[in-house]
Amino acid sequence: MHDIFLSYSTKDRARLQPLFHTLAQQGWSVFWDHQSIHTGENWHRKIEEAINNSRCVVVVWSKHSIQSEWVLEEASRGKSRNVLLPIRIDAIEPPFGFGMRQAGDFTGWNGKGDHPAFIELAAQIYGLLGRGSQPPPPPPKSRMGVVLAGMAAVAVGAGVYWQQNDGVGGKDSTAIARLVAPVAEPPIVSSPVATPPTPASAVVLPATPPQPPEPKTLPFEPEMVAILAGKFTMGCDGKRDDVEGGCSDDEKPAHQVTLKAFQMGKYEVTFDQWDACEKAKACPHAEDQGWGRGNRPVINVSWDDITQKYIPWLNQETGKTYRLPTEAEWEYAARGGTDTAYPWGNAIGKGNANCDNSSCGDKFEYTAPVGSFAANGYGLNDMNGNVWEWLQDSWHGDYKGAPVDGSAWESGGSASRVLRGGSWDNDAQGVRSANRGHYTPGIRSYSLGFRLASGR
């Protein structure tokens, strides 16, 4: 049994990656056909079992899903079981028969768990699931008043309740959410006040003990994105990757890889971040070719510089364990949950990445500041193009005998280390998610950079 059944149009899959990840990060099990149905399983049977047994159904209305018979059928099942929670990601009206249920407005959602739209949805989910599931933590204190006002919340003892017209459980039913005290804030002792009467259906939860403070994030630390466990086909799948010049033999054979959850840097490591290490006299100087420093990706750093100088210094300064990604982690993350040659589709298009201008049509002559292009479905920027990214693996000329668990492949290869992603001076073929490269670990170049990973 899953906590949540996510009903959506497959045309919106890439847009909904952040929602799936944010729901799962709250500790809820989410049935998402893209990751919940495995090879050889019957789609119809699995979906029917999940829609009938999931504890709530979140239907995502969009310009595509309101035309989908699958989504309408799934939403009808959720409605008949009285466990339907609708949201909309486009400015559209719900289909006939669903207009009486207020849909959460996710048209302006920023993909984060502290946004008012997500807070309200999560609290309604918690109201359905009850004590067996944890609600998300509240937003930072500076935004608490705004969020509570938007939710029309009324404090009741140690919890919060609000009226939910024509929602789950019938008209004027009551949903309950527990708000965790903001991190590192002392408990507030207020003078006695009159307590509003508690609705009969309300469940008031005991106060949550103060939580330990989160580890501090230093200015030069990377922003990390949680990547959930999963499986994918790594390498050149002819139906998927043989585009824009085609696949190379070193991308074969395509093979299934199953990965544990890990974290990946949202951006490539920048000059600002590298220069902090140089200032501490722990890293060598990295030349910028006269293109600028700041938030451009650091270049002219070798695999040896990164693994022997930068990462040990960063781990010592932060008390954390950063590392280079494995090749399997990199490709899984670069694809962003899609099954296409690029995270945005099967053609390079224009303005999607920083590569050779005749191929990509971008405005940058050399490197671009990180985050200049849209993030992929996992929330990662510049995985394709900008700079080649050093990885942990040793170079092997093909995937015969490659690990299938996502670990680094460091035995039996050459002295070179793997590079992925292509760069500002590669063509469309070179920035496909399947493309591979390599260099000796001591080489420095104006097209080579890196990003960090952690976890596993």
Automatic annotation (TrEMBL):
Residue intervals of the TIR domain: 1-129
Gene3D superfamilies: paralog of FGE (formylglycine-generating enzyme) (3.90.1580.10), Toll/interleukin-1 receptor homology (TIR) domain (3.40.50.10140)
PROSITE patterns, alphabetized: TIR (PS50104)
SMART domains: TIR (SM00255)
Coiled coil: none
SUPFAM superfamilies: C-type lectin-like, Toll/Interleukin receptor TIR domain
One annotated GO biological process: signal transduction
Protein name as it appears in the record: TIR domain-containing protein
Organism: Thiothrix lacustris
Classification of source organism: Bacteria, Pseudomonadati, Pseudomonadota, Gammaproteobacteria, Thiotrichales
